[in-house]
Amino acid sequence: MQLTLFQSDTPGDRARLLAERARAGDGYRQACIRRPSGKLRRLDVPEDDLADLQREFAQWLSRVLTLPAEVMGFVPRRSVVTHARRHAGARAAAIVDIADFFGSVRPTHVDHGLSIQPRFGNFYEQNDPEVRRDLIDACFRWPVGAKPYLPQGAPSSPVLANIAARRLDSQIVQAALAAFGAGMFTYSRYADDLALSTQHDIPDFGRRARAILEAGIARMGWRASPEKSRSWRAGTAPLLLCGIVVPASPSGGLRLSRDRMREVRALVHKVRTGELSLTGAEAFTSEAMQASGTLAWVYAVTGDPCWLAFGSRHVRALAHALGMDDGRAVAFYAGWLDASSQRQ
User: What DSSP string describes 20-60?
Assistant: First the structure.
């Protein structure tokens, strides 16, 4: 499958010009958004023409990319909910976080990840090596005097991060097979959050599993985050993954951790007291939209529709503002709910 996303007469011109600008450290502006926890996340937002190329490249990659079942982040119909659900009933586990994941991904990681994907064979055969390099480089932030990294804020970064981590996922699965045997463990990764668990009584599983995860990260040239990495066994505190309490039973229900629940209740209090409005003109502010997304995420985790009583108001208002009738608004809301729950 040849990549045919270029609009110029000479296929590589567009990618080359934008890659040259990116390598010179240009093409981005910085912005910040506030996470539900209150912390700020810095974004590198590409300029429109650069973002257009990144988006087209990412869309093409997504059409031909088949990610294994253990990859939970940035994949349709997978999310932190499916990530946590995968480990329900665990008897022991290890959770390891990659420190500064997007900031640690280099163009060589992406190039290697593409090269080991069978369906990308024609991408390498039918496109000039310089065009391939320019396409990949145009998706990176190149700060002057520092190493390039995947910018949070670029539309291509999520799919490229998953491609970069393909070797990591494969190595971890192979190492776990060698250590524990087939059918004796469960592995999944949501972006930079890695979890390896077992439903069996395997001696010293937590320590051994953590060593496997950390060794795989180190082989990629990345670093594990000590403060976010831990071993766990049943009978101690509940197993937490991305702010979700994993049920002790395979058929048990998910729930939020106490800290996340406290944040959500504070948000609901702001809505009830009128400090934050999710209706009318104020429903379209960034804070209101983020709040609605958070409530949709809580619904996706708990399955309790009461959390939609606030968020759905904003979405209906947005849908009707776009001229949709009630039927189309419902479909719009369903799609928004799925997207919002995956962004959390």
Answer: HHHHTT-SEEEEEEE-TTS-EEEEEEEPHHHHHHHHHHHHH
Report DSSP letters for 90-153, one per residue: -SEEEEEEBTTHHHH--HHHHHHHHHT-GGGHHHHHHS-HHHHHHHHHTTSB--TTS--BPPTT
Give the alpha-carbon dihedral of 265, 194, 160, 175, to 10 degrees: -170
Q: Are 8 and 53 in contact (CB under 8 A)?
A: no
pLDDT tens track for 44-65: 999 999 999 999 989 888 888 8
Backbone angles phi, psi at 333, to 5 degrees: -65, -40
Question: Tokens standing for 152?
Answer: 């949070």
The gap between the terminal CA atoms of the chain, to the nearest Å, is 33
Other beta carbons within 10 Å of 17: 16
**How many CB atoms are located within 10 Å of the residue 256 CB?**
19
> What pLDDT digit, counting tens, does each position of 261-312 carry?
898 888 888 877 878 876 666 666 777 777 777 877 888 888 876 676 555 5
Residue 325: CB partners within 8 Å, gap ≥ 6? none
**333's tokens:** 């809301």
